[in-house]
Amino acid sequence: MRVGICSLGCKVNIYESEYVISKLKDAGYVIVGFEDKADIYIINTCSVTNESDKKSRKMINRARKNNPMGVIVVMGCYSQVSSDEIDADIILGNKDKSKIVDILDDYLENREKKKLIYDLTNIPFENMEINSFDSHTRGFVKIQDGCNAFCTYCIIPYTRGRIRSKSFNLVIDEVTNLVNNGYKEIVLTGIHTGKYGIDIGSSLEELLYALVEIPGIYRIRLSSIEINELTSGIINLIKENDIMAKHLHVPLQSGSDRILKLMNRRYNKKEFLDMISNLKHIPEISLTTDLIVGFPSESEQEFEETMDTLIQIGFTKIHTFPYSRRKGTPADKMVEQVRPEVKKERVHKILELSNDSENKYYESMVGKIFNGVAEHHNNGLIVVHTSNFIPVIIEDKVDNNEVVDVQIEKVDGLNVYGKIVK
Question: How many of the other CB atoms lie within 10 Å of CB of 156?
Answer without folding.
Answer: 21
